[in-house]
Specification:
The protein has helices spanning 19-28, 38-42, 46-54, 62-70, 81-92, 105-118, 135-148, 161-170, 183-187, 196-200, 204-211, 216-219, 221-230, and strands at 6-8, 11-13, 32-36, 56-59, 98-102, 124-128, 152-156, 176-179. By secondary structure, the chain is of the alpha/beta class.
């Protein structure tokens, strides 16, 4: 799979054909999962490219999927990060331990409580919110994870902050890592995800725009990305 990574504007993406293929890969080759969408491809810079290319970039958006299909990877599938972390829990529930970092104190508490209710067998060895107020708090967090040796670490702090933290932890402890952005907020109902119809028709971005019109300044990039796809510039 390492040799099958596909270059999209300098961003190397794994063309996983299913969630199972991705899960099998990280089971045999644990690493840091990084969600890739049109925005990350279009706005890639030297730092973000390096972070993604050191790790396991997977298609989290339909824009990335369309670009890969243009390059001949017809079986590639969109794998939503806000669903993937729960699939990871389901897959490794009985064999691995878990550590969660991110979001506000209330949200992380609710996330852990809901996980324990939905997955009674889950073994969460540690968790904390994503507001690291000092260098000492960051070092204490890393030391705690290294000491408790979880098999899976979820970090929901936004990119590239979450990836840089995961890379620092990974230097001292090997595990499956996934950056989650705002997934804890979605899981606990603090942020509404698009209804299934919008998701299934690759219109999740449009639903979010209807809910948050101020996102137009951020999502105008989709026009440029569509132009790149049309003229095969990726």
């Amino acid at each position: 799979m390492q040799d099958k990574r596909v270059d999209l504007n300098g961003v190397k993406v794994y063309p996983f054909a299913s969630e199972k293929e991705l899960l099998d890969y990280v089971d045999s080759c644990p690493g840091i999962l990084v969600a890739i969408n049109a925005e990350k491809i279009l706005h890639a810079n030297d730092q973000t490219r390096a972070i993604i290319n050191r790790n396991i970039g997977y298609c989290d958006g339909s824009g990335a999927v369309m670009a890969l299909k243009q390059k001949g990877y017809k079986e590639v599938r969109k794998i939503a990060g806000c669903e993937l972390w729960l699939k990871i829990i389901q897959r490794f529930l009985k064999e691995k331990t878990f550590y969660l970092v991110g979001s506000k104190p209330q949200v992380i508490e609710e996330t852990v409580a809901k996980l324990k209710a939905e997955y009674p067998e889950i073994h969460i060895v540690g968790y904390r919110d994503g507001y690291l107020k000092s260098e000492q708090e960051r070092l204490d967090l890393i030391a705690d994870i290294v000491d408790k040796k979880p098999g899976v670490v979820f970090v929901a702090m936004g990119s590239p902050k979450q990836e840089l933290l995961m890379e620092e932890i990974q230097k001292r402890h090997k595990a499956i890592f996934q950056g989650l952005g705002g997934s804890f907020d979605v899981y606990t109902g603090h942020v509404e995800r698009a209804p299934e119809w919008w998701v299934n028709h690759n219109l999740e971005f449009a639903y979010r725009l209807l809910k948050e019109p101020k996102r137009i300044k951020r999502q105008i990039y989709l026009v440029k990305y569509a132009w790149w796809l049309l003229w095969r510039k990726l």
